[in-house]
Write a structure and sequence with these properties.
The complex is a heterodimer of chains A (404) and B (201). Chain A has 404 residues and is mainly beta. Chain A has helices at residues 2-11, 245-254, and strands at 20-32, 38-51, 57-65, 74-85, 99-109, 112-124, 129-138, 152-162, 165-175, 180-191, 200-208, 213-225, 228-237, 259-271, 274-286, 291-304, 308-319, 322-336, 339-352, 357-371, 375-385, 392-403. Chain A is globular and about 60 Å long. Classes of the chains: A mainly beta (404), B mainly alpha (201).
Chain lengths: 404, 201
Amino acid sequence: MLSFLFFLGLLLPQDLQALVSFESRLTSGYYRDSIKKNHLTLNYNWRFNYTHQSGVETFIDFGVNNNFVQDEWGLYPYQAYVSIPLAEAFEKTPFHIPRVQVGRQLLTDGFEFALIDGAVMPYYFSPRLYAKLFAGALHIPEDTPENSFNDQLYGGSLSYRLSGAILKGGGIFKQNQSAERYLSYFTIYKNFEALPLTPGILIKEQFDVKEKSHDQSLIELRAHLAKISGTLFHSSRRVDPLLSQKKRLIYQLFAVDKQKSFGTTGTWDIHEMLQIEGRFERVEYHSRVRKEIGDQGTGSLIIGNNNYSISPFLTRLSSYGGYFWDYGLSSKIRLKRELSLELESNTIKYKKINGMSGFAYHALAGISLVFPPNWQAKALIELERNHLYKLDSRALFHVSHFYF
Amino acid sequence: MSRIFISKQLVLLTICLNLFPISLYAEKGKPALIKELSILFSHKKHAESFSDMKISCKDCHNFSIKPSEKGPLGELIEESALKPARQICHQCHQGKVMVPTPNRCTLCHLPSKDLKPNDHFISWKNRHGQMAQMDSDSCKKCHSKNDCSDCHLQRNGHSVRVHRGGFRFTHSMEARLNPNKCTTCHQSTGFCLDCHMGKNR
């Protein structure tokens, strides 16, 4: 079946060119687990796009794999939808097409980021004023079919752009078999280009209308001074309490209430070929036992130009689960258009809540090849050394075919 | 062990950069092209697509410029006057035609800083979601639908783009720092249990 799909593109008639495009990606690897059992892993992904002369577009994205994490075969129809244009896009923003999309698709709106089975309708009344309506059921790729349509959501938003600002407001109705929620949210985004330090602000708040309570929030302040940019942020987030226990499990293992975090990020573009980045975040929430506080700080350099990049980094993370220092670098060297080298290595010094401590080493190296006009290949060797393996090696191969 | 890798990388990098000089088709401050424009754009390859989409010669080329001296022996119009504006490619490639490369810009341009908008340099991995939730269609100016899927949907254990190497040893500490982050992608209990109940090693 895999071979059939992989070569399907080669068999398609040439007169479909341009209106049909697709990408086939086959990834395989060999690895040996900690009890010396051998695994040959396989991942196949196929993305298909067909645009009819009328503008109607069909998009399919699905995968087949025996992913070594799950260690089982699975067929994953990630996305499959038809997009029907309702009007022409505006000349300056050809990507803003008023349309209705029906099928399985990603939804991003308000605080939502979800894969849904349903319909989404973005409509642009003018380059400044646009609306989005959506209705569907949440889908999780690993979920069993009987759980489909358990978690439903319906909503809409209205956005207005004015002098560099975006004002957005919306509402969402969510329901499952036993409960329902009514949420409303607003977003204010504005850049003050004329002011010193060219500050910017993003405020996003969501309220539970039925409970008359505050649900989630995100505030971000940005400023720029010459080639230095920085942000301050604060957020109060949580997993939707309407989701089934199974879907909330990971969050509920640790937190019983909202997770609050605040922090700062900074970027200094020192030179065309040198950039420094830093980020610090402090997170607080209540576990079943007490208030938990953790923090994470990362600093990195980005050195390079179009042909090579080297990024050394240092991260320190501390939580009630322990702490670790992670340092290393990643780099990519483009020898010519058809040939690149990829190198990555890091060392982790850790101490965990269960008493484990030590070092873990990881390295990945390989080459990436392009065979114009349609093929791309990558071969990588991954090495690990840690408390499970004295030295573990893994070989990975990626082959991609593009048709457009 | 890590120190050995770092030093090897640096030595290799130095050798490579000296051995393989690379020519670019770039103007300062503008995204460099992977090849010369005359090689990148083939009339022959595009003709069929243009015919399908009812795009005529006049949609790209301006034939309204007339020579100052008329007649068969009059002055010729400079070829450059007939060339379409550079932005003309974007009218299709950033609009209606979806090309499934990881990033549509890299179909013709080298991946570089010049391609990125300024806000992409400020902790973008952590901040891009907020912008997508505000206006996801704006991402389509450069990105295809595949770009979200690569990190957020793909169940490909071979991909190392999402988590850094050694994540297996640090995820318990990261999950206790920021549990909300895990649930962005992992909402299935089976995902944890496969390893923690001993099914996989």
